[in-house]
## 1
Amino acid sequence: MILKQTAMKLALVCTVALVSLSGFAQGVITTPRVPSPAATVSQTVGISSVTVSYSRPSVKGRDIWGALVPYGWNKQGFGTNLDAPWRAGANENTVITFSHPAKVEGHEVPAGSYGLFFVINKDNTGEVILSRDYKSWGSFWYDPKSDLLRSNITIREIPLTEMLTFDFINQTKNSTELVLNWEKKQFPVKIEFDVDNIVMANAAEELKNTTGFTWQGYASAADYAMQNKTNLEQGMKWADQAVAQNKSFATLSVKAGLLNEMGNTAEGDKVMKEAVSMANEQELNLYGYNLLGNNQADKAIEIFILNTQKHPTSANCWDSLGEGYAKKGDKKNAIANFKKALSMNPPPNVKANSEKYLKQLGAM
């Protein structure tokens, strides 16, 4: 009797367990992905971004090139069973996403997501491939008809990288180099964005929204055009709108800069003179330092002198004038103005700066 009851209980437990396990088909918990964890890496170029989502296999002492990753193009034995490149990782497709139109190895690429593939040959020549099909699993469903581009690359030798890693190197204003590092190979891909035109086009869109209700929006857009010497005519239109909303040193100085960049220096000087007449102490000081930074010491000294005349009780103005003379190499006047600043019970930062210069000039 006891044995019979025990057997019945055991059967009931097994039945419950089987029912519970069958429920797993309805939903399971999220667990770590092993042995090739998922990763995402992103880089901003200007205001554009490029993002790579991939899986990271490890070397684990295995032969990689020509073995785990065959050389050249290879049939996968499944899916389309066409000659296919390497999926640049593990598991699903490696996916690269561009927020704006870009150039990849000199080829135009529209904004969007693409499957990223590589080919490696025994002599370290190779190819990078972008496929419009980025949702398939690995290379099994690769079809050359979906290719957006193929470009030759030269694969580099590097120190051992155990886990496959994408990275961005050699950053410039307009470009970056995406690299895949694994084992002792590096696959480089140059990516470029037309940063200035992207920024200007984006500014035009932003100014159609709430940003366009402020003078700061137009002034910042015009300033970008001026600083980067791009789309100057459009920049001038924005500068005029900024001035119309708020005529001030901030807006007039941007307009003056644009006029100078467009070759109309006479009008630029006239507008800048008006801007200076409206400037406060901080604006004059910053303008003076900007002139110093552009190796225009004489003009900077003129601005610093004007600031001391407008704000004679400001120790910072006299300290800045001292820096102007020091930059010019006028030791006598530099020392006199630094001492003037110190005589006015300056704030700690101004005091420290004046004393530093006086020590450098051998006057303290």
## 2
Amino acid sequence: MPLKPLSRLATLGLLITFSMLTSSLAQTETSADASTDPSLFKECPVSQDAPNAFALCATAKCWTVDTVAYCKCDALNEQSISLPFHYEENGEKKDVCDLLKAGIDNGFTVSTYATPRQMETDYDPESEKLGEPMAMYTCPNSEDAPAGYSAQCDGGFCFNSTQGKDFPGIGPVKDDEIICSCPAVPSPKAGFQIAGPWLCAPGDSNSDGTCCDSSFHDKLCSVKSVNSTGTELMVGAPLGVAKILSKKLDGKEPAINRCVFK
């Protein structure tokens, strides 16, 4: 089968998966304990003594080739959360935690999720040195102002050979960064959220609107096509998904910088 139909099928599969996830998450908001339903998500590793390497792509910018996004993500070691991605291998039932474990000795890892520290309101750039402060940008989708494409990286494969190298369209990749391959997907019906620059000190109120970058929002919320090689786009998630994942993983709702444009 040609590569392009395969990539379209993969994109369709992710759209169906995240349509179902968004519906499930909407139900959790109206249920007292559904947001802790273990069937929706999987936390890895399952034991404290197991390897905890993964790629965090929640703040990543990407570059496309043949509608596939290649995203510069952070290589981290801590607890993370993901869709379970159940599969069967040699008659044994496995999931995303098995994929992460398999990658340790085989030169790859998987993109899962943890709350990006740079987005939290108590982040200290000077002492923590994780880069500039960031915020959650909301990209609403409507008939009058349709949102565009983002990269969906949960479950994306990432290859250790890209660390400490240069990557086309992205440039230098640090030793603690990694390139992940992720499908570019159109906006869900309600819209999506991406990470972007926060131009104030972490936790500032943004009362005068100067903390958020409107040009960044207008450009990266409105990527209308990914057919051209070299299209830039951000990793995105359906509205509210990151908040619920953080709450389940961390045990509390995160306090993060937010940018919403009217």
## 3
Amino acid sequence: MILVAIVGVGTGGYGFWTLMSYRMVSVPGGGMAPTIQPGTVVLYRWAALPDIPRGAVVLMDLSAFPDSGPGEGRAVKRVIGVGGDQVVCCTNDNLITVNGKPVKEPYTEDDNGYGRKEYRPFSVQVPPDAVFVAGDQRNNSRDSRIYVGMPGDGAVPLAKVSGVVVGLGSVLGAEPFPQTTAFVEAGLPGDPVSDTGFRTSRNLMFVGVGLIVLGVIGAIVSVVRSAGKRRRAVAIPPAR
């Protein structure tokens, strides 16, 4: 049973170690509604990714924007353009285009609260090593679109991106975040984010804890049984 506990320590330790690649954050504001409501806890992978695909939802530092003051914190936004993309708003159907391809984004909410849809036209070339972001609540979101024409054209350097949202809920109970295929369906290259490693890590950690408990209980039972046998042996009178 000691061996079982040792295996549990190894399994649970590996699960815990890999789970440390993920962090939790409570989403402030309503800029990502209706996809993410204010106060929702999301799970994001903080480790650097080789690239961030279009459509990914990221946690970014608001200091990336030119009018940010000290200590403004972070925000969750959707990537609608990556380095080298030409992002334009909008078509006659009120769709953004990326490299000339209209993108249908069914997750957005664009009513301005007065029953009207309002769009601020823009055209921007996203610089290398940066992303262009927007909130899903398109008429109530502080994002890259506001800063087109200012230094940086609203682009967020990758160094200001903390991670990609992969789950909804706490690290111990998160479910996979629904990733969009809107940009792929528009004919743009790249694949949506696919990361459910937190579930595997979490399961390994739980299995490890279970094995440790089982091993400890088994060891205690073995000790108790051995002690009982010794007491019985002492109680038996020697043969004459």
